[in-house]
Structures are given as C-alpha cells and as structure tokens.
Amino acid sequence: MRRLYYFIINQMIIQYFHHLLGNAIKKYAHLAMERTLDIGCGDKPYQVLFPKVTELIGTNSAEYYNELDQIPSETDVVCDDGTKLPFQNDEFDTVLNFQVLPVFQDMDAFFQEVNRVLKDDGVFFLSTDFLYPIWNAPNNFWRTTSYGLKLLADRNLFEVLAIEPLGGYYAMKGRLLVRFLRTKMACQMGKVKSSKGFTKLFHIFWLLVVILRTLTAPLWVNICLLAYSILDKVEFDDDFTTGYLIILRKKKDIAKR
Ligand SMILES: C[S@@+](CC[C@H](N)C(=O)[O-])C[C@H]1O[C@@H](n2cnc3c(N)ncnc32)[C@H](O)[C@@H]1O
C-alpha cells in the first residue's frame, strides 16, 4: 500500500522542485565542461541539461538507500563519504552536487575536497535547502542561507559566479505540501494498517478516507502547485525560498599542493 502511495505521489504530482532547480541550472549549464563529477547523483535527473559534458561520473552512498529506494543503477562509484572522494587531485572540469550538502558534518571539509578534485578554474554547481524538513535523519545537519553559502565559498577558495534562490514564498509552500504528502501521510497509512485500539468499523472508515485522499491528491495538489507558481511570479519574496543554486569557480592560487 505504501509503495502504491509513493508511486502515485511520485508519478502523478508535478515534480515541482525538479522544475525549479532544472530551470535555474539551465541558465548556467554551458559552464559545465567535459569530464564532470556528480557527488550524490541519485539517478542523475539533471544530466540532460548539460550539453558540453562528455563524461559524467556519478557517486552515490549505499548507506543512504533502503528497501523502498534501492541504490540507483546510474551509480558509477559507490562512495559513502563525500568528504573523502576516491579521485586524484585536479581530475575534473566540473563538479555537481545537488541536494546533498546537509548530510556533511563538516561543510568546509566537503568544499575543500571538491576544490582538491577540480582543475584550476573548474566550476562547482551546488544546490541545497534553505527551508525544508529533516530527511536522512540523523545525518542531516544544516540549512544554509545565501550569505552562509558565500562565506563557505570564500573561505574555501572559490569565486562566486552566481547565486539563485530556488523560488520564493509560494514555491516553498508548494514544495512542503508535496513533501508532507509523500512522507507524513504515507506514515499514517502504515499506522492505520497496524493500529490496535480502533474498532473495526472506525478502522475501515479511516482506511477509506486515506485511500480517497490518495486517489484524489494528484488533482488538488497539481492545482495548488499551478496556483503557487503563478503567485510566486506576482509576489516574489525570496526570504522564504526553498533553497539555492550556487555556481562557483575554483581560485587558481591554491591548486598546487
Ligand atoms: C536527496 S538525494 C539527491 C540526489 C540527486 N543529487 C538529486 O538531486 O536528485 C541525496 C544523495 O546524497 C547521497 N549521499 C548521502 N549521504 C552521502 C554522503 N555522506 N556522502 C556522499 N553522498 C551522500 C546519496 O547517494 C543521495 O543520492
């Protein structure tokens, strides 16, 4: 039942955040060149956006995935610690890191490791959460502001080329709504199945409510998401953004160690 629920939410509800991040990436995708490393690549959802990338090596952490979500077949290298990458110095023209940063206990160590594997003038694309619930607990340590990201970049010898908020207040609401459905309600479903205190009649009634809500969710959620995307254009407030995409260039002078 939970698998069905995840299937409906994943397949039938607009992948709102995917659009937000995809549109931001497209503006800078021409900066990503030939040999590229994607740290925590998942199933490489943004690969198609990079026309100049000729070789995309993707890492994933085996520890991160579980029985609901198996390690993606797109994984080229299994690496459970992005702060210790199994690559040589100056190996890559570009490094990508989308929606992974909060898992690192030491964000500076991660930035330094990216700096190590990048060639001089190599470009680093990073996106991360500003307002989002905890995921991958307990290994979820940080939420960052645009100012915090710039500070991290600066003290780890990167030049900031661009920083883009990923939507405003309404985008943030839309993203939280989808996330709420995907996890909170799926958990309720599990609880309904196993709850002991309920009378049989109430149990059946509640199960029907949950099933009805699941089946109708794609309709009303997609309408909400459409409304939110319009409202974000009318009244944009990025103090409430979902997160950021930041584009960095490795500064030359620290390259030779
Ligand atoms: C939220 S997913 C993001 C996947 C993909 N980048 C995307 O945007 O769809 C988080 C990813 O972080 C990776 N990951 C989790 N813990 C990690 C760690 N300690 N070091 C490196 N990668 C890690 C996992 O392989 C997973 O694919």
What CATH architecture label of the largest domain applies?
A: 3-Layer(aba) Sandwich
Oligomeric status: single chain
How many separate domains?
2
Bound molecules: S-adenosylmethionine
**CATH class call of the largest domain:** Alpha Beta
Strand content: 15-25%
What helical percentage do the residues reach? Answer: 40-55%
Number of strands: 7
Q: In terms of structural class, how would the helical and strand content be classed?
A: alpha/beta
Give the neighbour order of strands across the main sheet: 3-2-1-4-5-7-6
Looking at CATH, which topology of the largest domain would you report? Rossmann fold
Average pLDDT level? 90
Anisotropy-based shape: globular
Largest sheet: 7 strands, mixed
Number of helices: 6
Structure description:
By secondary structure, this protein is an alpha/beta fold. The protein has 2 domains: 32-166 and 241-254, Vaccinia Virus protein VP39 (Rossmann fold, 3-Layer(aba) Sandwich); 169-238, no CATH class. 41% of the residues lie in helices and 20% in strands. The chain has a 7-stranded mixed sheet with strand order 3-2-1-4-5-7-6, with helices on both faces. Strand 4 (92-98), helix 3 and strand 5 form a beta-alpha-beta unit. The radius of gyration is 20 Å and the shape is globular. The mean pLDDT is 90. The structure holds S-adenosylmethionine (SAM). Residues 39-42, 45, 60-61, 64, 79-82, 98-100, 103 line the site of S-adenosylmethionine.
